[in-house]
Design brief:
The structure is a single chain. This protein has a single domain, classed as Glutaredoxin. It has 198 residues and is α+β, with helices and mostly antiparallel strands. It has a 4-stranded mixed sheet. The protein has 9 helices and 4 strands. Strand 3 and strand 4 form a beta hairpin. The radius of gyration is 16 Å and the shape is globular.
């Protein structure tokens, strides 16, 4: 079975705007997904990127236009300047890692729920109560928010190192074998690749 290695940040607006299309594509093509949350700011610093707030004004302005257009295109509501962005992505990432290790719930739903909390619901995904709500809504034990912290920290750091080594430089980023796809706007290409058409 083909595996999609999915590198993402739980506070990335473009990861939010992917919705759950990755999960639909994987299901349609009989592929599995390995969820690999990482520290996007550290990734930028390691791969030549710049955090949004440090970008030139023209790039910041374009980013807001693009987010607005992609929101309209996908039908996913977005607050372009959420109250809790940027925030510490580590706690929510640790919860995703713990949920993946435990199983039993909807992992794609958990990831999207965390992203939606940040980008559409004005909630701080660094807060324990928010993470617990997202875990419960996706069918996981809310206690995962406070367990497996060591595993979460170790895996979160390892995901970053792995990503840098494999040529990942942004989020969302999808890898199948040696084929790399950057951005939610490349999901159609990923789909075609899995079908053997690209």
């Amino acid at each position: 079975m083909t595996q999609i290695d999915y590198y993402f940040s739980t506070i990335s607006p473009y990861t939010y705007l992917a919705g759950q299309r990755l999960e639909e594509i994987a299901r349609r093509n009989g592929a599995t997904i390995a969820y690999k949350p990482l520290d996007i700011v550290a990734l930028f610093s390691r791969t030549g990127g710049t955090p949004p707030a440090q970008r030139h004004e023209s790039r910041q302005s374009y980013r807001l236009q693009e987010l607005r257009r992609q929101s309209a295109r996908t039908g996913l509501p977005i607050n372009l300047r959420p109250a809790h962005f940027p925030t510490n992505a580590a706690p929510s990432s640790y919860a995703v890692i713990a949920a993946q290790a435990t199983g039993g719930g909807d992992l794609g739903g958990l990831v999207h729920g965390i992203l939606r909390a940040c980008w559409a619901e004005e909630r701080d995904v660094a807060e324990d109560a928010v993470i617990r709500d997202c875990l419960a809504a996706a069918g996981f034990d809310p206690a995962l928010a406070g367990s497996g912290l060591l595993l979460g920290a170790e895996t979160y750091a390892a995901n970053l190192e792995e990503a840098v080594g494999r040529g990942v430089f942004g989020a969302p980023f999808y890898i199948v074998g040696e084929e790399k796809f950057w951005g939610q706007d490349r999901l159609d290409d990923l789909d075609l690749h899995l079908q053997g058409k690209l």
